Automatic annotation (TrEMBL), chain A:
PANTHER family: D,D-DIPEPTIDE TRANSPORT SYSTEM PERMEASE PROTEIN DDPC-RELATED (PTHR43386:SF1), OLIGOPEPTIDE TRANSPORT SYSTEM PERMEASE PROTEIN APPC (PTHR43386). This is ABC transporter permease. The keyword Transmembrane helix applies. It comes from Streptomyces galilaeus. Signal peptide: none annotated. Its main location: membrane. It is found in: Cell membrane. Residues 123-322 form the ABC transmembrane type-1 domain. Belongs to the binding-protein-dependent transport system permease family. InterPro entries: BP-dependent_transpt_permease (IPR050366), MetI-like (IPR000515), MetI-like_sf (IPR035906), OppC_N (IPR025966).
TrEMBL record, chain C:
This is ABC transporter permease. PANTHER family: INNER MEMBRANE ABC TRANSPORTER (PTHR30465), OLIGOPEPTIDE TRANSPORT SYSTEM PERMEASE PROTEIN APPB (PTHR30465:SF0). Belongs to the binding-protein-dependent transport system permease family. Signal peptide: none annotated. The chain crosses the membrane at residues 9-30, 116-141, 153-175, 195-215, 257-279, 299-325. It is a multi-pass membrane protein. It is found in: Cell membrane.
Length: 335, 599, 332
């Protein structure tokens, strides 16, 4: 059910209330160019958000350099260490899930793969899917939202109906269904890459209406503003107005929604892998680790706790950072 | 308690058990005893007490509710359509056959004994005619007698594969090899009994006339797909929702994937049935979507046993082994788990490359992935499961998989690769069902160990419900380049024919639903099978079975993982429990009883 | 108002047709494109060609998509008969399809499973509304206090936890560890206490996640509204703080909460997949997940349709309630 998917909708209150939301958003546009500066000043003062940001930065670095870090530690995410496994129970022989100087977070049951190495590699999948699906959603949402808001008429009707429709879709259900029927090789991709690619597209596709709604609303209100009017009366082309005048003013809401969407996407990826339709073995993913940990919740609780905490910390850091960015970009935020 | 010195691990287990017992002060049911291998105060019979022997037969009392739990529902409860071993086992509660497996532990349980029939077949005409006479007093759940025509109609249903898909089709293949009969639903004769190979001269007599002799024919009649079905009660594809009972119990309610309840069939008479003891009054099954929850219910004593009989999940197994060892049995299941190499996918057309994979694999690692020696089984060394006559177990080990090469023999594997013309290795794809975590684990183990000999493999997990269309289609296998397929196979009936014919006979290669994944076209093997079906003496059959197994292993088509074993749970309250080779090491359901019917 | 309702209902029907077509597309076109024969997944170990043909005929797999969709909708109102291989199966109206995997009509499955999911969603909703809204209001009123910070950190943590992880931890502590709850679903008509005991942990787990979200939204909205002119006016007029908050501020705060509640309930009713998986509840989510694993298209279609219906109805109800709560909104 991925409840968090719906979090952004609260701010993007649907149809009847939308007009009101749009009306109160005027202030944002007035800030103009200096918005980035002001926001940064604000963000710097928000310690929680900053620490969230630092954790996010660290995670990105860890994900980027996962192969290097693991090789420095002398581990490989797919290497078996069956000598560390009790053959009768299939669980690690050492205490706390086989934690040792060599295996800092212990090893997996049955095959003895190093959990730290798998967590580090898992971060790559989580962040990759989290970021790229947000990018897909932002691109689709921005383009379609601007088109709908700027041109109005039937374009607006069609886009709006499609957005309503997508929001009424049982999303997780559709994502699972889509991912599970996808063929194993696609466009020259094979193995886990196919699944990652499909997940990015599908999660992104179901995410765009949240951004699309906001962008459409903003465009609607901006369209009638003096400077757009002015540009128009000066004979500026539609495209010029769209990109030169409108886009800069849409940056703030888009940034806010993107930062809020990434953690949701990370959770969705984990949920898909948890349900068995995510990445394929031996690729490591946090959701997949959690799902195999169910079989050892009592005999090897560490195996469940580690990936659980990894997801928690990552999503929490993104949420803290996202909150901070929102508050910083929104002058009405109560600080 | 034994007075032996306890090892550190054992002490740990006891300490853990004691701590848990202290926590679970309210959990009186089931008992948290930490006693070992012997009978206990909770009443459990002891470790392996019901493995190939009867445990606590005299403690079974009449009455009570026998409670099954299951993580998976049957494929169908229709006697014609079911193919799961546990379904065949359970179906004996509500169906009877002319002959059936003996209600005895171990190997004896695989022998055939008369059920509806007064005695086993009178075989004449060089093994081509089988004649049976029905017992007196055998009745349906509405009190009407079971006639030879009901038996014939029930068997005819196997021909209606377009409506009643799923079950074994041996009877159809043997009685009507040319496929002339179209099945009872398209039968133009008035009584719908148009199948010529079966004659019913009177209500008590049934005669089978085989076009070609088959020495395992009576084994095939012991399958539940040979159960009688009464024509006026045949609801066709819906029959599995409420089969009309000929056995001691009948369906009271069934909601697929949720629960099932059987109650006594009051028309069934004990005197007419030499097999079934029918101890409990009611039998229930509760279905779970999560195996861990099922295991919890078993451990707490809420349920008596697992319907699926495939072993406990890792967590439940660990708890059970540490705290309730006396409730466990560790039978051999009759399944061989293996990897098979389709010869259509290069370089597996070359025997040396096949050998390289067999030799290079780490067999201990594969065994661990299957669950280790106790929960997974002994390292498999050949393709014939120990319960099949003619099998030699680990004694026949042509590639030394359980001895010298058990950790993988990199040098020999590389030599084989060189002989194959691939000295630097090659890359290929493993196909594995996505709904079997243990099989995925073995695929990963294979992937890891083959890397050491330069063979890189990619794992392709396919939808497990699509097995027939994906790996059962040779053209698809070739197209996808599945050089290694991970599967398991158990005997439909304990003979080399009931196990190996679909796997190794060139006649069984088909475009869909193929099971001869290796695409073995070996005249010697085909010839041995032909010889087998016309050999009527047991010693001769056994000898041929051994030969077939050797031929298959010499061809290096298969990499066996384990001769499967599993950890099976029986509650403190179960009595008259025993495993039987007739149902792949499962407990014989039909004669289970309860010690305390009120519980 | 009436015209508005008719328009919305019409849109909803169009929406449902589109959804059904999309589901058909996903499960028939994609496998076809990938070269997988669906009929083969419905037959057993010894796939007889006759069996494959029979399945294809009965399922109407040979028909074009639009014909299949049309048959499906006709079945809902008029019932349907499936024929093939000398067998015919009656599926009475409302026929939401027939599952050949379990040989049962979809409609009884839906009616059987729906109450479980509904109970899960509603019970959790009551809990999370009480918890989330009160925590959010308190935080807003005592902004910056230790309570506010504490509550918001907990809320943020709640939002960041995957529900199946919380569920697993809750199960292993409270059910398997401390044995406080039974942790097993018991149908309501069997025993109320058993049912309640089985539902309490899923309720709490689910409510924890949503309460966190609702607390955050409530706090933010409340803060915004407290800054509005009319609240200042009310205060200036000398109204009691309790009246200002309870009557005026709360009313406006309810509006976005209601939107969320509508969407969340709608989504949950059709797809509490993760919660139902974690706690083994025999609801719609579990049914549909199993159906996806088994490629049991009729069940997937049925659940998807019911789910989408639930979301659409929930949205409609929310919009109408808007007009009641907030006089500024007029339905046109």
């Amino acid at each position: 059910m991925t409840a968090p998917l719906h979090e952004p909708t609260a701010e993007a209150a649907p149809s009847p209330a939308e007009e009101a939301t749009v009306a109160t958003a005027d202030a944002k546009a007035v800030q103009g160019r200096s918005l980035g500066r002001i926001a940064w000043e604000r963000l710097k003062r928000d310690k929680l958000a900053l620490s969230g940001g630092i954790v996010v930065l660290l995670l990105v670095l860890v994900a980027l350099f996962a192969p290097m870090i693991t090789s420095i530690l002398g581990q490989d995410p797919n290497e078996y260490h069956e000598n560390l496994i009790d053959p009768l129970f299939g669980t690690p022989t050492g205490s706390l899930g086989g934690i040792s100087g060599e295996h800092l977070l212990g090893v997996e049951p049955v095959n003895g793969r190093d959990i730290l190495a798998r967590i580090l590699y898992g971060a790559r999948i989580s962040l990759l899917v989290g970021f790229l699906s947000a990018v897909v959603a932002v691109i689709l949402g921005t383009v379609l939202g601007i088109l709908a808001g700027f041109f109005g008429g039937w374009v607006d009707s069609v886009v709006s109906r499609v957005m309503d429709g997508l929001l009424a879709f049982p999303q997780l259900l559709f994502i699972i269904a889509l991912v599970s029927v996808m063929p194993n090789d696609l466009l020259g991709l094979t193995g886990s890459n196919v699944r990652v690619f499909v997940m990015i597209l599908v999660i992104g596709f179901f995410g765009w209406p949240y951004i699309g709604r906001v962008v459409r609303g903003q465009t609607l209100s901006l369209r009638e503003r003096e400077y757009v009017e002015a540009a128009r009366s000066l004979g500026a082309g539609r495209l010029y107005i769209l990109f030169k005048e409108l886009l800069p003013n849409l940056v703030a809401p888009i940034v806010v929604y993107t930062t809020m969407m990434i953690p949701t996407n990370i959770l969705t990826e984990a949920a898909l892998s948890f349900l068995g339709v995510g990445v394929k073995p031996p690729t490591a993913s946090w959701g997949q680790m959690l799902s195999s940990a169910i079989d050892y919740y009592e005999s090897d609780p560490m195996y469940m706790v580690v990936p659980g905490l990894a997801i928690f910390i990552t999503v929490l850091a993104f949420n803290l950072f996202g909150d901070g960015v929102r508050d910083a970009l929104d002058p009405k935020a109560s600080r | 308690m034994t007075t032996q010195r306890t090892s550190g691990r054992r002490k740990q287990a006891i300490a853990a058990a004691a701590a848990v017992a202290a926590l679970l002060t309210t959990a009186a049911c089931g008992g948290g005893s930490d006693d070992g291998d012997n009978g206990s105060k909770t009443g459990a019979a002891g470790f392996d007490a019901a493995n190939n022997k009867v445990a606590q037969a005299d403690l079974a009392k009449k009455g009570g509710t026998l409670k099954f739990g299951a993580a998976q529902d049957a494929d169908s409860w229709d006697t014609t359509r079911g193919y799961y071993g546990m379904m065949w086992n359970f179906a004996r509660y509500y169906s009877r056959q002319l002959v059936t497996n003996k209600a005895e532990p171990g190997a004896a349980g695989a022998e055939v004994t008369p059920d509806l029939a007064t005695e086993t077949a009178k075989v004449t005409d060089d093994g081509k005619t089988y004649t049976y006479t029905l017992r007196d007093g055998v009745t349906w759940e509405d009190g009407k007698p079971i006639t030879s025509k009901d038996v014939k109609y029930g068997i005819e249903r196997v021909w209606a594969q377009d409506v009643l898909s799923g079950g074994p089709t041996y009877l159809k293949d043997v009685l009507d090899p040319k496929g002339e009969y179209k099945g009872p639903y398209k039968d133009t004769s008035a009584d719908k009994l148009g199948l010529k190979a079966i004659e019913t001269p009177d209500d008590k007599t049934i005669v089978f006339k085989l076009p070609v002799a088959n020495s395992d024919f009576e084994e095939m009649l012991a399958l539940v797909s040979a159960s009688p079905v009464r024509q006026d009660m045949d609801t066709k594809s819906k029959y599995g929702l409420k089969p009309f009972s000929s056995g001691p119990y009948k369906f009271a309610s069934y909601s697929p994937g949720k629960d099932l309840k059987l109650v006594r069939n009051t028309e069934w008479k004990q005197a007419s049935d030499p097999i079934r003891k029918a101890y409990p009054d009611e039998i229930t099954i509760q279905f779970f979507s999560d195996a861990n929850q099922l295991d919890q219910r078993l451990l707490s004593g809420d349920l008596d046993l697992d319907l699926n009989q495939t072993g406990m999940s890792p967590q439940g197994r660990t708890t059970a082994l540490k705290q309730h060892k006396g409730n466990l049995d560790n039978p051999v299941s009759g399944y061989v788990r293996y990897a098979v190499f389709p010869q259509s996918v290069a370089p597996f057309d070359n025997i040396e490359c096949r050998k390289a994979v067999i030799l290079g694999a780490d067999h201990v690692s594969l065994q661990t992935a299957r669950g280790g020696p106790v929960a997974g089984g002994d390292i498999g060394t050949n393709m014939l499961p120990p319960s099949v006559p003619g099998a030699e177990g680990q004694k026949y080990d042509p590639y030394k998989l359980a001895t010298d090469n058990k950790g993988g023999n990199i040098a020999e594997a590389k030599a084989a690769l060189k002989a194959c013309g691939k000295p630097n290795g090659f890359s290929t794809t493993i196909a594995v069902r996505n709904n079997k975590p243990v099989e995925v684990a073995t695929a990963q183990s294979l992937q890891a160990s083959l890397k050491k000999i330069g063979v890189t493999v990619e794992i392709d997990q396919y939808d497990g419900s699509q097995t027939a269309g994906i790996i059962g289609s040779p053209s698809n296998v070739k197209k996808k380049g599945y050089g290694i397929i991970i599967m398991g196979w158990g005997p439909d009936f304990p003979s080399v024919q009931g196990f190996g014919l679909p796997l190794w006979s060139s006649k069984y290669i088909s475009e869909s639903g193929n099971n001869n994944y290796a695409l073995i076209k070996d005249k010697a093997i085909d010839g041995l099978f032909d010889q087998y079906v016309t050999t009527l003496d047991d010693a001769g059959k056994t000898k041929i079975a051994t030969e077939i197994n050797h031929k298959v292993m010499e061809g290096a088509y298969y990499l066996p993982f384990v001769f499967e074993r599993f950890i099976n749970w029986r509650s403190d309250n179960l009595a008259n429990v025993y495993t039987t080779d007739g149902y792949s090491g499962q407990y014989d359901f039909v004669n289970l009883g309860l010690k305390n019917p009120k519980k | 108002m009436l015209a508005y309702l008719i328009r919305r209902l019409f849109a909803a029907v169009v929406m449902l047709v589109v959804i059904v077509m999309v589901v058909f597309g996903i499960f028939f076109l994609i496998p076809k494109w990938a070269g997988v024969d669906i009929a083969l997944s419905f037959v057993g170990k010894q796939a007889d060609p006759a069996a494959v043909e029979g399945v294809r005929e009965k399922l109407g797999l040979g028909d074009p998509i639009y014909a299949q969709v049309w048959e499906f909708f006709k079945g809902i109102f008029a019932g349907r008969t499936y024929t093939g291989g000398g067998d015919s199966i009656q599926c009475a109206a409302p026929c939401f399809g027939y599952s050949f995997r379990s040989e049962q009509a979809v409609w009884p499955v839906l009616t059987d499973r729906f109450p479980v999911t509904l109970a899960l969603a509603l019970g959790a909703a009551v809990l999370w509304l009480i918890l989330g809204v009160s925590a959010g209001v308190l935080s807003a009123l005592k902004r910056g206090s230790l309570w506010d910070r504490g509550a918001m950190v907990i809320a943020l943590s709640g939002v960041s936890l995957p529900i199946y992880f919380t569920g697993m931890v809750a199960l292993s502590i409270f059910v398997y560890g401390l044995d406080l709850f039974d942790g097993q679903f018991v149908p309501l008509d069997e025993s109320f206490s058993g049912w309640f005991g089985g539902m309490i942990l899923p309720w709490i787990t689910l409510a924890f996640l949503y309460a966190a979200m609702y607390a955050r939204i409530t706090r933010a909205t409340m803060l915004e509204i407290l800054g509005e002119d009319y609240i200042r006016t009310a205060r200036a007029k000398g109204l009691k703080e309790r009246t200002v908050i309870g009557k005026h501020a709360m009313r406006s705060t309810m509006t976005p909460l209601l939107t969320m509640l509508g969407m969340d309930l709608g989504a949950l009713i059709g797809g509490a997949i993760l919660t139902e998986t974690a706690f083994n509840l025999p609801g719609l989510g579990q049914a549909v997940l199993n159906a996806i694993k088994n490629q049991d298209l009729p069940i997937i279609l049925g659940v998807t349709l019911i789910t989408s219906l639930a979301v659409l109805v929930a949205n409609l109800v929310v919009d109408i309630l808007y007009a009641v709560i907030d006089p500024r909104v007029r339905l046109t």
